[in-house]
């Protein structure tokens, strides 16, 4: 994919449904009794992997790709059918970690794995709490990575525990909470900082008993979940790329409609405001416990900032695009406490620093982040996103303001979370 200097971005647009919420709607829809109708479902490859895994466990799921609608015919907590094949999550960390929690409570055995990136990502972080719950789960190659082999619980029920997670990870938290549905008593998870809370919100909405106190979540086992209607808001993590494009390309003004602004996900809005961005939230509403708004973004002169601490989990997937913003800001931007980036679909610190350096940016990697001195003009380069959707989209945005041509290798990886990304950008750029 070749990107040329272009712009401004103009007009009203929407982005695909939230990936985290789409995954959870299928999972909880399957464990609930009755029909769950999901509107604005993200038809990205990761969420399609979740659908395919549940179909393999006998759940009937109807999909209307054109209208972004999914209907899950839930069979209740004990309604999943024994598997005859291996579960393949593709590239999706959320699918493997959350589904493993569910599988540990089933009375059948399973093997779950994914693509080469998934087989390198750390699974020890879920094996530890699940084994404390007396789940029978192991890494097949004994390397704390997928494939994972799971048998039914060693005793009839899993053991409810209080897990103090060493990392703020919604995937770890959600994995333990979902296993907790099959436990013999309450399950508590405490995290060092609050990570995205979509599982807690949706589980309550389906009829689960969930209590949140500070950074601790408690679930009661064996809830009676019933099918619901879910309207998935636009994904703020996808909107972030268009927001950034509008902020850096002169004379841009766009309105991104119906984007999720859950406070555990809105760190990108805070950072944009710290950088001096002209962004307004309009038409704020709430549906199924999840807040959403239209986001009005105008081109702005940006200044560098410092990002770390409890803010990081609220913008973890937006750090690659924040690094691009930092290149167009005056002064220094420091990103720290983001060592989690090293174990995503790619090592995102390395991928950003390597490719930004190729474009002529002043950027330096640190163990847990990066330091960027903004204001140096970027030039086009060949970008290897390492099959990582967020890296590919970040550099497509940078390419709109770089001199010469920017070539993105393996651009199809954007289909993981944002099918139609390139068409959306070129449609918005050409609405001048
Ligand atoms: O729970 C989720 O839906 C997600 C949690 C985050 O991962 P971690 O839990 O590993 O931080 C995030 O990076 C991922 O894109 C989606
Ligand atoms: C890290 C991501 O997803 P996952 O962990 O589900 O693969 C992401 O979408 O940026």
From TrEMBL:
InterPro entries: Enolpyruvate_Tfrase_dom, Enolpyruvate_Tfrase_sf, EPSP_synthase, EPSP_synthase_CS, RNA3'P_cycl/enolpyr_Trfase_a/b. Its EC number is 2.5.1.19. Pfam families: EPSP_synthase. Residues 4-424 form the Enolpyruvate transferase domain. It comes from the Bacteria. Transmembrane segments: none annotated. The active site is at 317 (proton acceptor). Pathway: Metabolic intermediate biosynthesis; chorismate biosynthesis; chorismate from D-erythrose 4-phosphate and phosphoenolpyruvate: step 6/7. It catalyses: 3-phosphoshikimate + phosphoenolpyruvate = 5-O-(1-carboxyvinyl)-3-phosphoshikimate + phosphate. It is an enzyme of class 2 (transferase). One of its GO terms (cellular component) is cytoplasm. One of its GO terms (molecular function) is 3-phosphoshikimate 1-carboxyvinyltransferase activity. Belongs to the EPSP synthase family. Monomer. Catalyzes the transfer of the enolpyruvyl moiety of phosphoenolpyruvate (PEP) to the 5-hydroxyl of shikimate-3-phosphate (S3P) to produce enolpyruvyl shikimate-3-phosphate and inorganic phosphate. This is 3-phosphoshikimate 1-carboxyvinyltransferase. The gene is aroA.
